[in-house]
Amino acid sequence: MQIIQRLDEFREWSRQNRTVQRALVPTMGALHEGHLSLCDRAREEVGAGGHVVATVFVNPTQFGPNEDLDAYPRQLEEDAKACEKRGVDVLFAPNPADMYFPDASVEIHENVLSTGLCGASRPGHFTGVCTVVAKLFNLAQPDVAVFGEKDFQQLAVIRRMVRDLNFPVQIVGGNTVRESDGLAMSSRNLYLTDAERTQAPVIYRSLCEVRDGIADGPVKSPQDAIAMLEAKIGSAAPAKIDYLQCVHPETLEPLNEFGEGGYRLIVAVFFGKPRLIDNLGPV
Ligand code: PAF
Question: Is 27 in the pocket of ligand 1 (CB under 6 A)?
Fold first, then answer.
């Protein structure tokens, strides 16, 4: 596996390998099985003869002023070993000073899907995400890019950006990978205290119970679903609910009733400092 940190070197690699199918897995590092499963998915997309490119870049522009940018785990050596073991061909890990000009003045705003949910709690977050993902697409020139479904809103926003700006990239969603007790894998799980870690699986447990309730009949409306989630998750100290919603899976609009288009239960919950997100749709 090649590790590339310089932008000009990465561009050159990209240019020289233009004829080989290429799948990109953008990450912020601290890689866990969830990320590595995205690399597997990327390999499935391009096959043995293709190139899987992973990126590790803790993108400063998607963190708010009071968020955990400085504390965000950075472990490039371990990440590189994990990528190599998983058959990644190139790991691109640029320095922040090289990625952004000090007087950078162009950003990409998505104005509809980004406004609610995490966008409401984290103003500017999706502008940072769209801008860095667009830059990574321009540098890496991938045919396919894989993003985790755990970040359901992010996936929807990136699909919309690609559609609206005609990026020649196919976006693939990778399944959420979970710990054995159901907690969705996340770099932020590292920050949970033992007590918080013990309680955190209530999120997925509750999502499953509500989903089953919808399928079996007792949960008749999105409002019932939200009330049930609130009761279950809200009663598990020290959970502090940021949002709980039942939305249309593509428009991310809150639903008033269940219909043909399906639904997504989507939550963000603070357990102490860490803010955990998760989501679930019909089986
Ligand atoms: O999902 C993430 O880790 C980040 O938001 C991404 C897509 C790598 C952009 O920085």
Answer: yes
